[in-house]
Amino acid sequence: MNKKEYRRLYELESSYWWYIGRREIIKSLLAKISLNKNSHILEIGCGTGGNLEILSQFGEVTGLDNSPEAIEFCQKRGFRNCLLGDAENINFPEQSFDLIAALDLLEHINDEQKVLKEIHRALKDDGYFLIMVPAYQFLWSEHDEALHHKRRYALPGLRDKLLKANFDIVSASYFIFFTALAFFIYRILRKIFSDGKKKENQKKTDYLLLPNFLNNFLISLLKLEAFLSKYITFPFGISIACIAKNSIPINDE
């Protein structure tokens, strides 16, 4: 992600519907598992720190990111326990954490299985893994390129990757369901009418500034999804969220 996008992300995370609503979903998902104030939590790819506050409600949180700019923004939010590091080589001993969160991280990684294996190693035997990723490769756009994504996902494929890495699936669902159709149309139209010749540093994300009433309405929809997720799963959406539990140890042989 370029420096301008980091600053933009930092500014948007406190007010933009996507980030506020996503935190509501995270809170709803974490309420399903056994954590307490002494639980050790790691967010890999913590970015500018927008999720650290909600994670800190469930335990002692540490942030990890490979960008010095991201760590600086986390510190501006008051989170000092944020470290520069690599998802492929988590610099913590085995079985260090009760929960590891990778929230829109895996799509940035070349070797997904290596990262999943490393997460498995750093989790306690009964630890949990919370993962969120963008859905559907056909929605690939300039937004993904601006954020340096490698891919988007479908739920069956993500489930298979987690099982291959020796995780048990606790819950898995699409999210951003109620606005999905409008989002599908917007992405497809943007792809049709966009200039595909833009330079890398000219590509921008889809974070459109919205009138307050619309921004608040979209937040309300995601709060509703967070509530409903206690009882149902969604058949489609523009994001996927899974909670997985550490299973049998990985055999390196």
TrEMBL record:
The question of whether Transmembrane is a record keyword is answered with: yes
Record has Membrane as a keyword: yes
What's in the keyword line of the UniProt record? Membrane, Transmembrane, Transmembrane helix
Specify the Methyltransferase type domain's residue ranges: 42-131
Q: Which GO terms describe its molecular function?
A: S-adenosylmethionine-dependent methyltransferase activity
Q: Where are the transmembrane segments?
A: 169-189
| Pfam families (UniProt xref) | Methyltransf_11
Task: Write down the PANTHER family for this protein, in alphabetical order.
Answer: TRANS-ACONITATE 2-METHYLTRANSFERASE-RELATED (PTHR43861)
Name recorded for this polypeptide = Methyltransferase type 11 domain-containing protein
Q: What organism is the protein native to?
A: bacterium (Candidatus Gribaldobacteria) CG_4_10_14_0_2_um_filter_36_18
